[in-house]
Amino acid sequence: MHVVNYPFARGRAGYGARVITVIAAVMLVAVTMQAQDIKQAPGGKKISPDLFGLFFEDINYAADGGLYAEMVQNRSFEYSPSDRQEWHPFSCWQYITPGYSYGSVNVETNAPVHPNNPHYVVLNIEHVGDSVAGGVGLRNRGFSGMPVKAGEQYNFSVFAKSVSRAPLTIAVSLQNNKGKVLAQRNISITNGEWKQYTASLVPAEDNDSASLVILATTKGRLALDMVSLFPEKTFKNRPNGLRADLAQLLADIHPKFIRFPGGCLSHGDGLGNMYRWKNTIGPVEQRVEQKNLWGYHQTAGLGYFEYFRFCEDIGAKPLPVLPAAVSCQNSGGTWRIGGTGQQALDMGQMPDYVQEVLDLIEWANGPATSAWGAKRAAAGHPAPFNLEYVGIGNEDKITPEFEQRFRMIYEAVKAKYPNITVIGTVGPFPSGEDFTKGWSLAAALDVPVVDEHYYSQPEWFISNQYRYDAYKRNATKVYVGEYASWGNKVKNAMAEAAYMTALERNGDVVAMASYAPLLAKKGFTQWNPDMIYFSNTRACPTVNYYVQQLFSTNQGDTYFENVLVKDPADSVLAGSCVQDSKTGDLILKVVNAGPTAKSVKIKLARFKKIKRDATCTILTGDADAANTFEQPKAVIPVQLDFKAEKEFAYAASPMSLTVIRIKTK
Ligand code: AHR
Description:
Layout: H1 16-38, E1 44-46, E2 54-55, E3 93-96, E4 102-108, E5 120-127, E6 136-140, E7 146-148, E8 154-162, E9 168-175, E10 181-189, E11 195-201, E12 207-216, E13 220-231, H2 244-251, E14 257-260, H3 264-267, E15 290-292, E16 296-298, H4 304-314, E17 317-322, H5 350-365, H6 371-378, E18 389-392, H7 400-416, E19 421-425, H8 433-445, E20 449-456, H9 458-463, E21 477-485, H10 490-505, E22 510-513, E23 519-521, E24 532-534, E25 539-541, H11 543-552, E26 558-560, E27 564-565, E28 573-579, E29 586-592, E30 598-603, E31 613-620, E32 638-643, E33 647-652, E34 656-662
Parallel strand pairs: 2-14, 14-17, 17-18, 18-19, 19-20, 20-21, 21-22, 23-24
Antiparallel strand pairs: 1-26, 3-6, 4-5, 5-13, 6-12, 7-12, 8-11, 8-13, 9-10, 9-12, 15-16, 24-25, 26-28, 27-30, 28-29, 29-34, 30-33, 31-32, 31-34
Helix pairs in contact: 5-6, 5-7, 10-11
The structure holds alpha-L-arabinofuranose (AHR).
Alpha-L-arabinofuranose (AHR) is lined by residues 57, 59, 262-264, 394-395, 428, 453, 482, 516-517, 527.
């Protein structure tokens, strides 16, 4: 039997019985709660120590143009009509010939920097006019303008070669949208072979819509590729790093894990679009770029190494999700016609594919002397990443092709790496054919955890709070990998909060949970609602973000029943009590997702010692209130001092989440 790596006893069980018993169980739970309210449960139960984490997917420009701090758009001239019909290798670039200069520009593919990165640009500089402002070159405005700050450093780099074999000079500048130069450096391109050149630019003034200009000021032919500009101040100053403000917002959640890179992005739009982790490691100029099925382009600059490094930087466990050798059932836009576009790798390709999955584990955890561990070490990380979880598949259609391939991958991982917890998948919905088939497969194979997904109205979350009370305790565990109520208003966030207390109550069955989607760029969203909205210069965490943050920063590893006593029939009033064994702190959460104030009794007599000086954090607002770019702090948590007693009544305001943290030592 597979043993999961947190203290749960488990065995095998089918899901079928669960479905049948759900309604009866809900009624039973209500009755039991009433009875339990009278007699206190003697002790606590162990719950998952990794309950609340994050799910990152490159949707809504979350990676390129978002969290990934690269400021140049289409830096490697790899945009193509397969990304978006109107895109091509020269998209986002402007050919410029200021100061009465002339020449020409071509996109070429004969002798690229690397075969994985086939397109590059060749400038033919025939005449440089004005000796001060003249030149033949390129302008890139980034992702709708590059925001720069006076006095801060921006690191420019480019792969270049002098095709005409004579040294050429390029002037690299940051300019405002009137052409005023904010910072400039000259670079001499001396080599006839590809070579990376770098320069740092320090603008003299702030500008939110700057552009990067490269002007060749010597006659000749010049090839350019991988034109890059990063702020020096990325998150933790990492090279090829992350946008500091967005990464910090994620770090501030203190997630126990991060699932990446998707979502539908993982299994891709057709087999050729599956996210293959090996394409996303190593030098950025050698990574394989591809279309993003959400309607744009993936540079893979934010690749597996960067995901793992970010997890480590913020103390979150990495949870990579690999395709189960089948593509998304919506491949080729088949969701429109309700058909299945799922494609499966040929069985002849499966041995290599299974090896690819095993190689990831060696890359993450193997010694630096192993074949794949050496690649991690070469990227600057000789120590292992301590990978514990691997997701196989993302809400796939549970077809015979899927089952066959999932089984092969799962068995191989289990045999070679028995300590890795494999997370399976049970379709896109909280019930239905794929859900049932997925659960049956998990039971048959004794899969330790499966990934459930649901997006619904706030009322669904309120009325489904007892969903997991009815699940078998010693069977496959649940990862709620994607969930959200449809909206960013206080009433949505409070429905999620109420539901999250139920996830804590069921933390012996629910191993992990993550809200989805995480990030969305204003004006570039394919999916709403999301947890954090951002522009090039600002971020707007939603009320849902603060709910996630309050739960995540107040996790425990033991759950106590019957500490909060309330009318069990009142479904908009919910609560939980957990203890964090490291600090000894007791953490009470009270959610009132209704329109009137409610009182709840708190009984702490079972705990020998509690300290009177406690803290109380409250998140509350009108049901329809929300955070916006105009009012980003309309609804944020407020922390107050609180005096705890062994027994007290707490009055929860309408539409509120309260977290009371009490010291026991
Ligand atoms: O979170 C957005 C999408 O929702 C994910 O890509 C997919 O898994 C789900 O359908």
